[in-house]
TrEMBL record:
Name of the molecule in the record: HECT-type E3 ubiquitin transferase
InterPro entries in UniProt: HECT_dom (IPR000569), Hect_E3_ubiquitin_ligase (IPR035983), HECTD1/TRIP12-like (IPR045322)
Entry EC number(s): 2.3.2.26
Signal peptide: none
Amino acid sequence: MEKVLPLIHTGGLTALSPSTCSNLIGLLAKLACTSLVAVKSLFELGVSSTIKGILITSDISHGMPYLPLEKQNNQGLTCGSQNLPAETCPKQGTSSSGQAERNTTILSDYTIQQKLVFSLNGKELDRSVTLYQSILQDHINAGSEIILDMQFWRSVHDITFKAANPEANRTAVNPEANDSPRHSSTAMSSINENTTGFTWQMLPFFSSMLLGKLPCKLDRSGASYDILFMLHILEGLNRYSFHLVSDERNRSFAHGRITNLDDLKAEVFSIPQQEFVSAKLTDKLEQQMHDPLVSRSCCLPLWCIELMSACPFLFSFEARWKYFQLTAFGSLKNHHGHMMDASVNSVAERGSSHSRKKFKVDRDDILVSAAKMMKSHAKSNALLEVEYKEEVGTGLGPTMEFYTLISHEFQKSGLGMWRGELPCKSGTHDTHVSRFVVASNGLFPRPWSASEDPASFQEVSERFHLLGLVVAKAIKDNRILDIPFSKAFYKLILGQELNIYDIQSLDSELAICLVEFQALACQRKYAESNLTRDCQISDLTYRGCRIEDLAIEFALPGYPEYVLSPGSRSDCLNAENLEEYVRHVVDATVKSGIARQMEAFKSGFNEVFPLKKLQVFSEDELERLLCGEQDTWDFAKLVDHIKFDHGYTSSSPPVINLLEIIQEFGSIQRRAFLQFITGSPRLPPGGLAALNPKFTVVRKNNSNDVDHDLPSVMTCANYLKLPPYSSKEKMREKLLYAITEGQGSFHLS
């Protein structure tokens, strides 16, 4: 360790060969899995520059050249479907999490579902790729030039088939099939699992490190494989750095190295994800996706699929968004742009090539209308357009407002869906206080016990199913939702497992209490196992107070009706049941207590498109896609991203007044202004620059006395008609009146 760290932090990497550099950083990554000193070195002493050095000095894109699909040759990075066991390779769109579970699933695909084996020229075909790709790969392997002329398309390719032998096929496809699970099991069996909340050795990236391989089919003999593997480990350590440091402090308290409970608090500054992005790989992926043949056939080269599965962090957010569109919906041209740059905004709207479905909804019964709409059109590829009963307006504006309204409906109290929900008190007439769920850290499912009222839970389950449909359809149609999910909820959507440290992101007070109780439970267990230590169990206290004297019921905080364990209702917390209490509370809060709700959500989501397609994104990026982002509105940015037309220029006095007023708006007024202009109180990913159509301001002349006129909008075109008011104060007055009172109805303009 002492020899590695100086090389890392004194610029020694620049003098080393790429292979030596890779080996040193790889060693540090492995050491970090068992040493908090190395973790600290990675995340507090400038590993950002180290990663940059790796991405710059070690060309991990070498061997992954851009070539039009019809000209690709054997210079490309080998995807070792013949060299690596297929069972160890996750299917397209999956991440590295849940490796053991996916191995079992894929093994089942090969040994049970496969009835026939198909071969081309005597070579067994890989079922994970298309026949077209297999034919091209056969030409590449033969070293022959590929010319896509008439002769190529007229050629007859003989495909032979035979009945599959499950056992023989399993052995042929994966010679290590009998070994890998055993090795994994052996490695994991030695781990002393912390049943009260978190076991860092079970993290997906750590499982990958134990197996010594990436969860993909990339050729392990390639020069870039070791660097990719090392970056995979570093990114995982970075992502879980808070969990790792918190767990280490918990152990230090148990062993007596820390004596103050306040010292359990961990503050870790992770490296921004942008530091892991490879510009070269991103460029090559972009070129491949814009190849006309690829965009029409959806046949990306295997290296794109495998790298996106194993190391999605190497690609920029914009590139992964395009990859997601291509793999989830079939074509980049199927979706209109809400994205970050002009190239994506120029993508034609889906309505040009796909049908649109209009649906009439009732403003007074949004949830019922949404349920009917999703039942009829959720699985359709058509763009949904909304119009309201007894209103003539239709198009983008009313549709965006519908997704805003349904977002607000799901946040209302009384639905039994979210933590922090306060039921209305009988006899009270103050509906404002309890109308919406207050969740400062974002919405997260409230726990439901299996013993609670089945009829009530059935309604909750149906609401989560509908929520899954709405969220998926919003993503598919590029609509923005105004619903603040918690980071922990996004992790669940992405298939990640939560633990005691994730409670911090949804209920910090409960998390602190549980972590401290867990530390005491670990201290008690360590004292019992260490026979030479002079420590009485009864001496264990919580901040100077005996556990029994805290008078805490053995019940789920905030949900006394939830049964943590049979026969525990009358129990009080004590030193004997402290560990059991923490385990049950964590399980009820982030595991079994919310599992059925999440299953209902995922069931609804998967009816629109496979949820696993989202796993190329992080939880922060998923929030950005679904709910847009907050944009800073400085004067120069507003001038750049707003179009002034039909009587106005950027230097017109009314325009300058408008821009100054917008800058002075608070958050509530800004949300109201955005909803007035676009139908949604949030901006799409990319901010104001990504609005499509572009926000346009034009001069409105309806009367001789303009100070009595109100501004109006065409939400379908993001079009503001602004009278040339005589003063800034008069414009502010009329604009605030319009954005406050001019909501809830669409008419022809």
